[in-house]
Structures are given as structure tokens and as C-alpha cells.
Design brief:
This protein has 123 residues and is mainly beta. It is built from 1 helix and 11 strands; from the N terminus they run βββββββββαββ. The strands form 2 sheets. Strands 2, 4, 5, 6, 9, 10 and 11 form a 7-stranded mixed sheet that branches. It has a 4-stranded antiparallel sheet with strand order 1-3-8-7, with no helix packed on it. The protein is globular. The longest helix has 4 residues, at 104-107.
Length: 123
């Protein structure tokens, strides 16, 4: 069992920045692909970013490329989502996710989810 706890959300003005953190318990953090999803009101939950177990491979959705960066620190069992140049359309609940398979981020069946954290971007 892996527990994921997100932090760093909140209210920010358009054009501003936030950094989300997701701390994981357990001793096998570096066995998991980690990532972030988001769900805006009335919309489906979509993948935003993912990062491989060792950090060598990353994915960013087209809507956030050039603005968001995903990284991880395996020594701290933490994954980060740096969000710059935020837009109103980035407003959503952001969920941290973990899975042993990278393809789960695109095909469904994520093993573990955080509870989610709200990011609100005011225009």
C-alpha cells in the first residue's frame, strides 16, 4: 500500500506560479512511475504529467508543455509539479498518482491516488 499526500495548492493570479508536492510513504517509491492528473468542474480527470521511476523519462500534456515541469526526489519519496505562467483554465483539483506501469497513466487502472488538492487561478 502506498499513501500519497499532496501539498502546495491554493489561489494564485493568472501568470503566477505554484509548486505542488506529493509525498509518498513506503520503501518502494523508486519502483513507481509517478504523475499528476487534474479534474476541472464538470470535466473528466486527465493526465497532466508523469515521470518514470528513475526520472529519466517524463511526459507533459500539450496544454502544459513549456509551462509545467515534473520532477522527483527519490531520496525524499517526493514528486513535484512546478507550474508557471498559470492560466485560468489550469484551475482544477490536482491528484497525485502512482503506478508500477507507466502505461496506466494513459490506459487507466492507476494503483494509488492522493486525495487531491485544489488549484485556483484567478484571471
Amino acid at each position: 500500500q502506498v499513501q500519497l499526500v499532496e501539498s502546495g495548492g491554493g489561489l494564485v493570479q493568472a501568470g503566477g506560479s505554484l509548486r505542488l508536492s506529493c509525498a509518498a510513504d513506503g520503501r518502494t517509491f523508486n519502483s513507481y512511475t509517478m504523475g499528476w492528473f487534474r479534474q476541472a468542474p464538470g470535466k473528466e480527470r486527465d493526465v497532466v504529467a508523469s515521470i518514470s521511476c528513475c526520472g529519466a523519462s517524463t511526459y507533459l500534456a500539450d496544454s502544459v508543455k513549456g509551462r509545467f515541469t515534473i520532477s522527483r526526489d527519490n531520496a525524499k519519496n517526493t514528486v513535484y509539479l512546478q507550474m508557471n505562467s498559470l492560466k485560468a483554465e489550469d484551475t482544477a483539483v490536482y491528484y497525485c498518482a502512482a503506478d508500477r506501469s507507466a502505461t496506466a497513466f494513459f490506459n487507466g487502472g492507476i494503483d494509488y491516488w492522493g486525495k487531491g488538492i485544489l488549484v485556483t487561478v484567478s484571471s
